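Pasting as-is:
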Amino acid sequence: MHERLVDVLGEEVAGFVMEHLPPVGWADVATKRDIDQLAVVTKREIDQLAVSTKRELEQSTSLLRAEMATGNATLAAELRGEMVRQTRAMIVTLVITMIGSLSTIAAIAH
């Protein structure tokens, strides 16, 4: 092959071409068919990864929603309890203030 290249292209170009040939036999060089098969396999693997990723994302979303619902329920219960405590304290303060005011008015009226 080298000799034919020297005859056609000259020594310098023939040497350059030979240096850039694969170091193995032509049977080891990928063909268009090999690349097409690799593309099919790669696409299949990417599709499987997409399905797997979508399933994991849906599961994570479901878990997150459940955790948020639990957190919201807990927060609502705590808020409701605090509102009841504050309302009771306000009513007690209001009743005591009214009793004190009425007692003062009654004392002044006598």
